[in-house]
Amino acid sequence: VQLQASGGGLVQAGGSLRLSCAASGNKLSFGDMGWYRQAPGKQRELVAVVTSGGRTNYADSAKGRVTISRDNNKEAVYLQMNRLKPEDTAVYYCKADTVLGGVVLTEYWGQGTQVTVSS
């Protein structure tokens, strides 16, 4: 199984981007799906996560500006980002977990997509 992230790019502050991440290969039933980001010189951090049941959780920096969604039929997860700020500049990674009995079996990571926000 591979996750393919897309949708990054260069945008001015205040603009919007929509990131997409789709799985290919063997069809799996994912548990949590989420987006993380890593800025230069910083650790990777959670942006948002959505459970298989549709519950969402956001980093404080993302609340009110970011919406995560998923399409279970397409094994895809999306990140709509609005009112982007220069500090949102980072490589964004999608992640999907397979779960059994509440235990994460495997974590799958996408290859990352660059988001650059100019001031």
Q: Any overview of this molecule?
A:
- The chain starts with a strand and ends with a strand.
- Strands 2, 4, 5, 6, 9, 10 and 11 form a 7-stranded mixed β-sheet that branches. It has a 4-stranded antiparallel β-sheet with strand order 1-3-8-7, with no helix packed on it.
- About 0% of the residues lie in helices and about 60% in strands.
- It has about 120 residues and is mostly beta strands.
- It has strands spanning about 1-5, 10, 15-25, 30-40, 45-50, 55-60, 65-70, 75-80, 90-100, 105-110, 115-119.
- It is globular.
Helix content: under 10%
Q: N-to-C SSE series?
A: EEEEEEEEEEE
Which structural class matches the secondary elements?
A: mainly beta
Count of alpha/pi helices = 0
Radius of gyration: 14 Å
User: Per the principal axes of the C-alpha atoms, what is the gross shape?
Assistant: globular
Largest sheet: 7 strands, mixed
> Ends: how far apart?
37 Å
Number of strands: 11
Q: In percent, how much strand structure appears in the residues? A: over 45%
Contiguous runs where pLDDT drops below 50 for at least 5 residues: none
- Let me know the average pLDDT: 95
Looking at this protein, list some descriptive labels.
119 residues; mainly beta; 7-stranded mixed beta sheet; 4-stranded antiparallel beta sheet; globular
Short description:
By secondary structure, the chain is an all-beta fold. 0% of the residues lie in helices and 60% in strands.
